[in-house]
User: What shape does this take?
Amino acid sequence: MTSPLLEIRGLSVEYRRRRTVSLAVDDVSLDVSPGEAVGVVGESGSGKTTITRAILGLTAIRSGEVLFDGHDVTSLDFAGRRRLYRQAQLVFQDPYSSLNPSRTIGRTLAEPLRAYGERDAGLVRTRVREMLERVQLPDGTADRYPRELSGGQRQRVAIARALMLSPRLVILDEPLSALDLSAQAQVLNLLRELQAIAGLSYLFISHDLEVVRYLCDRVVVMYAGRVMETGPAGQVSGQSAHPYTHMLHQASPSPDPRSQRRRHATTAAPPLRDPARHQAGGERCNYAPRCPFAISRCWTERPVRRADEGQGEVACHRFPQWRDEIRLAADAAGPPWAPPSPRADLEADLEAVVLEPGHRDGIEGALHGEDR
Assistant: This one.
């Protein structure tokens, strides 16, 4: 098997503010293989961005290891950091604030090359032109400023800047959150094409399971600094092993209000009232205060990650029993709603409209005619 390009083992990061200490990342382990895309999913505050900052040395870690290509990067000096940044690049969440508004796009893209010692102006211009073409932007974009571009174009520029040094790993921190749906689709397709062409590895940070399912091979689900579930993207998105992942699915909007009501009806029973809820201190599951399936054990014992039914792992005391409760709730909610066919809608509308006999015959003939 190929050795992982990025390995994170038992990573913990804490933030101190005056006398308050908060554990932002708690014993997180994950890896990214060469040419693989791994998604990290969770709500705001789950520790996703803190992991990326720890990888790049922007945040001090309390314990654990971060290995890049087999080398520990947590204690690198300045020269070591420079070598790391050439191999691992970051695409920020907001494409506008990450670009210098007083510099043209050409100067922005040329900056990484010049920072690493490239002095041949002709070679730099050629590289900028090639990279703009690769991210599907016209050559004239090099003479424009960030304010003259759309959100999707600015994000393409940010991706192009990250690729200027031909890195092996690209970390994408919520790269789609500032874009509309059409621009999101374009950037996602671009990322897949670039990965196929250059063999890139991605660590993709997001809160959207559907987006991660489209782009990534594996998914890591985080909540309150801990890993709740890991596994192949299709498995995690299609058959959740942890109640929190199921909740993320339930939170996804549905275009039909009746389907949305049924989805909410299958979130199972209200939380259990347990004396252990009021006990201070001790190890517990971080998701227990919000989990509708929590029992006393969830409040007194921290779950360890164990293999689930597929190729992933889950940190849940009640797996797979909580799924049975979901099925019972779904049965009580009745069969799933199916939208009527367009023909049925038209026939129902026709019955409700008063028309002249000749007009009615003509409409009915059009409805029931061949190839209509």
